Amino acid sequence: MAEILVLVEHRNGTVSRPTLEALTAARAVGEPVAVVLGAAAEECVSRLGEYGAAEVLLCTDPAVTEVVVAGVVDVLSTVVRERTPAAVLVVASAEGKEIAGRLAVRLGSGVLTDAVGISVDDTGVRVRQAIFGGSTVVTSRVRRGVPVVSWRPNAVRAEAAPGTPRVTPIAAPPGADRQARVTATRVAAGGGRPALNEASVVVAGGRGVGSAENFALIEELADVLGGAVGASRAATDAGWLPHTAQVGQTGATVSPDLYIACGISGAIQHVAGMQTAKTIVAINKDPEAPIFQIADFGIVGDLHRVVPALIREIRRRRE
Ligand code: FAD
């Protein structure tokens, strides 16, 4: 069985859910080999074994782990040259996308972005890609070299396949570009909420929310559902939330189980970032708002009345 390299995203040894999804996808077409970098890399091993990694390559050398992006590319390109896997899977996060692009250039191959499916035939790995903001799915392959695949979070459900992986320490390759260094420990944004592109519930607010202060309501709904907070560009441009919360063509692409759009009209550029959500709920006072065309459930009403009522009802049912 051909090897599929999976780059592991983790925070201090806690493996991200999209990584487990990528491992699940890799297992379907080959033997997953996980590559983990960082001081806490070893803490990831048992979790990676639980999700079917046949082997875990560990790199704890600060010469690469304290370097932004370039160090990861150095390690991955060295491993690819040594082992010639059938493909490299990288989570399609902001950092993952940058790694994927740089790695493909280094390998002289190509990137298949926003992958939602993977298969193998005589010609090698084929990938189903969600393009045009997820409105179209195409099947693509890279014709030269080892394809680099950026795997879209929430495209598949992570499924466990417990095993005990081989563990292989690897050294940092010498003499690479190490200009940009991590100078402070990374901190999780969002007050302990899940990351926007990993969350299974996203509650998003738009211009209809009215002010930065009013976003407390959106955050409260997100918190009772254990979700992340998103926003339309109108809300981030107004400075009500940081741009990292923006969902859409020029923001994050999310595919949660549940997306609740509050006071968002449903402009095509917003829809491009969330239309693959499994269930979409829209709350808008305008019954003609385009968001209702893609919503599974629509509530026509003032969000300042509807959202508190929703929060009360969710809490009541939990008691
Ligand atoms: P509006 O379109 O103004 O809609 C506000 C909605 O709130 C209305 O439907 C209104 O009926 C409703 N409302 C008002 N008050 C209430 C209330 N009290 N209760 C309930 N409903 C209420 N946009 C993005 O979101 N993400 C992107 O990535 C993005 N990228 C872009 C890229 C380009 C190149 C361009 C040109 C635009 C982009 N936009 C993006 C902007 C996009 O076109 C829209 O302008 C934006 O999405 C509108 O945000 P909105 O729905 O919050 O605001």
TrEMBL record:
Keywords: Electron transport, FAD, Flavoprotein, Transport. FAD binds at residues 207, 232-233, 246-250, 263-270, 284. The keyword Electron transport applies. One of its GO terms (biological process) is fatty acid beta-oxidation using acyl-CoA dehydrogenase. This is Electron transfer flavoprotein, alpha subunit. Belongs to the ETF alpha-subunit/FixB family. Heterodimer of an alpha and a beta subunit. GO terms for molecular function: electron transfer activity; flavin adenine dinucleotide binding. The electron transfer flavoprotein serves as a specific electron acceptor for other dehydrogenases. It transfers the electrons to the main respiratory chain via ETF-ubiquinone oxidoreductase (ETF dehydrogenase). It comes from the Bacteria. Pfam families: ETF, ETF_alpha. Binds 1 FAD per dimer. PANTHER family: ELECTRON TRANSFER FLAVOPROTEIN ALPHA, ELECTRON TRANSFER FLAVOPROTEIN SUBUNIT ALPHA, MITOCHONDRIAL. Residues 4-182 form the Electron transfer flavoprotein alpha/beta-subunit N-terminal domain. Its cofactor is FAD.
